[in-house]
Amino acid sequence: MRTRLLFFCLLSAFTPVLGVDLTGRWSASASFEGRQILLVFDFIQEGSSVTGVCGLRPDFMSAVQAVRVEGNAIEIDFQLPAGPPIKVSGVLEADTISGEAKLPVKPFTAKFEMKRAGPVAKLPSTGTTEQNPIDLASLSDEFDSDASLKGWKTLSETEGLPNRVESVEIAGGNLSIVPRSGAWWAGYHGIYLFKEVKGDFAITTRVKVTGRTAEEPTRIWTISGLLVRKAVDAQSPPGDVKENWIYVMTGRGPEAARVVDAKSTVANSNQWDITPAQPGWYELRVARLGPLFVILVRPDGGAWSVRKRIFREDFPESLQAGINVTSDFDVSVTMPASKYNSQLFPESKTDGLTKFDYVRFARVDKTPLADRELLRIPDEELLELLK
């Protein structure tokens, strides 16, 4: 059911309707089997060329696959993650598209409607770089001394939670972590070492995830990487805590294969997607440009690529930023987050070993991209600014 709900798509072909400009934000709904799924689209139209993104929430948008228009008839193709495409066929009248969404593999038809909802997302000109001239490089850690760990805060100590680290060691210029049961998804917690950062920044790590005694972990969702998090209200009861964070992690995913996982969590609700990954070391980077968070990845010997753009207008100026480890999804999924987060599970046999080569912080200046709509900023410009 989850994959049915995730409509993500890059618009590759569009024949414009004379006098109609699709530029702007559109809200959409797909109704089927007594359910209603809400979606968000952003379009930029320049002449006969249209660029589009869509998703279930405005913070987590992905590129659209195809749109065709003949007269006032319109078709939109959506590619489900790890699934077949969905085709929307409808009629365009003024600022509304009405019709049906069909899944070609099995009988499935939903009533579909899309309405114009406002302007597309834009990168604001106001920022925090000039207001916060702190040299963020001083927060970096090359893990060449045991003493460096004293500069990190941990989730367990900060929020009075169980320590999910079984062992930690600095040797050979690496930080090695063997985890106890811990899981980062929705409101669930795993290992987290962080520093507090204010304003626009980039955090980068080089990480390798293996099993404890073999190259490949034996348990699903054995992944590690970077997490940027809004601090929770210290006065909130455990059952009322709402997690708000983004992450990029790599390791073994939901099956046997390795993945890079990008995720945005709003009030304990996840939006995520995964792409295939290779074994070995990966460099991961999260860069903040005001409300825009750009995730970049690079396998050893490869080139940097933009993995995901996440738009979080709800994030405050000050955030936690650091490294995280997930190791035991199978146990976490059997109970509420409040119960899982309050306990350790020594009987659970996790199989993860994570090595971090370094964590580096840097200040980012978004001035070259200020006041531009996100859809008008190509990945090449982001790479030039952030690589």
Give a short summary of the structure.
By secondary structure, the chain is mostly beta strands. It has five helices and 23 strands.
- What is the helix content? under 10%
Mean pLDDT: 89
Spatial shape: globular
| Alpha-carbon distance between the two ends | 37 Å
Number of domains: 2
CATH topology of the largest domain: Jelly Rolls
Per DSSP E runs of 2 or more residues, the count of β-strands stands at 23
Into which percentage range does the β-strand content fall?
Answer: over 45%
Q: Can you offer a commentary on this structure?
A:
- The chain contains five helices and 23 strands.
- 7% of the residues lie in helices and 47% in strands.
- It is mainly beta and 387 residues long.
- It is globular and about 70 Å long.
- Residues 1-18 have low confidence and may be disordered.
- It has two domains: 2-118, Quinohemoprotein amine dehydrogenase alpha subunit, domain 2 (Lipocalin), CATH 2.40.128.120; 136-386, Jelly Rolls.
- The chain has a nine-stranded antiparallel β-sheet with strand order 4-3-2-1-9-8-7-6-5, with no helix packed on it. It has a seven-stranded antiparallel β-sheet with strand order 10-13-22-15-16-17-18. Strands 11-12-23-14-19-20-21 form a seven-stranded antiparallel β-sheet, with helices on one face.
